Amino acid sequence: MAQAMNPMNIPLPQLRNFHSQLEEEIDNLANSFAQLKQVQSKYHECQLSLASISEKNKGDYGPVSPVLLILNSPQHLYVPGELSDVEKVLIDVGTGYYIEKVRVVGGWGAWVTGGGP
Q: Rounded to whole angstroms, how far apart are CA atoms 33 and 42?
């Protein structure tokens, strides 16, 4: 069990070192949280995009359906693409990880199918 320690008895250089370690840890946590929020936002955008894909899109233009693919989120730059299967899509969630979404009753199911670099 840890004992209580009076901070007035700790040497000043040791307190400064402890302070800098805490600041570094807080910065790391803040950066990790910001990255997590970015991934969450990207995933939410993908969910909205998936909601617009339906069975009625299949076969409207032959074996493939035209779609606009987003290249970057903040500026919303899109390029034309083709969707050959409206029942299964692959989503890039960042840092080299992908999620394969498969249409199930009532929505989309998911599982991780790709790994990092």
A: 14
- Residue whose tokens read 């901070």: 7
For 48-79, how does the pLDDT look when each residue is reduced to its tens digit (9 = 90+)?
Answer: 777 777 666 555 555 666 777 777 666 678 88
Could you tell me the residue ranges of all domains in the chain? 10-112
75-101 burial, b at 16+ Cβ within 10 Å, e below that, comes to: eeeeeeeebeebeebebeeeeeeebeb
In Å, what is the CA distance from 50 to each residue of 15, 20, 35, 90?
Answer: 52, 45, 23, 11
Place of tokens 């359906």: 65
User: Would you state the structure tokens that stand for residue 94, as one six-digit string?
Assistant: 């960042």
The pTM score is 0.56
